[in-house]
Design brief:
The chain is mainly alpha-helical. The protein contains six helices and four strands.
């Protein structure tokens, strides 16, 4: 029963260890500035206070976040054209402007590269075929089919 009849100063000093009996007149001001006193029971020296101005309404914040997440969901499937446009933006083929005329055959070719027509003729020549022999071979294959 003796524990029930404790004084106000002992109750405040148990919850607010920073208060002393000399500063009891400032207790009301102190309690309005600091609404909550958090302390670790193992290490009481690490106690800190949360000002009442920072009092957060956690359920209200969670409700607002939940609504914003639900509204941020896409309503319809993105079309193939829109996906391709978004993914390939700025990656299109560039026009080739550096074209020259081949000095051997006269076909157009890219600058600083070999002419594909001349290269094909050289490949055929190294394989032992000439231009006329290739044409006759194509005609013979067409007649067999």
């Amino acid at each position: 029963m003796a524990a029930i009849h404790t004084t106000t100063s002992s109750i405040l000093s148990s919850f607010l260890p920073r208060l002393s009996t000399a500063s009891m007149s400032n207790a009301s001001r102190f309690t309005t500035l600091y609404s909550k006193q958090l302390s670790l029971p193992i290490i009481p020296s690490l106690a800190f206070a949360i000002p009442s101005a920072i009092h957060l309404n956690v359920p209200g914040l969670l409700e607002g976040i939940r609504e914003s997440i639900l509204r941020a969901v896409p309503k319809k499937k993105t079309s193939h054209m829109k996906k391709r446009t978004r993914q390939m933006a700025g990656k299109g083929l560039k026009d080739v402007t550096a074209l020259n005329k081949c000095s051997a055959c006269g076909h157009l070719k890219r600058a600083h590269l070999l002419c594909p027509y001349c290269v094909a003729e050289l490949k055929d020549m190294f394989k032992g075929k000439t231009g006329k022999a290739v044409e006759t071979a194509k005609i013979d294959k067409g007649a067999d089919a």
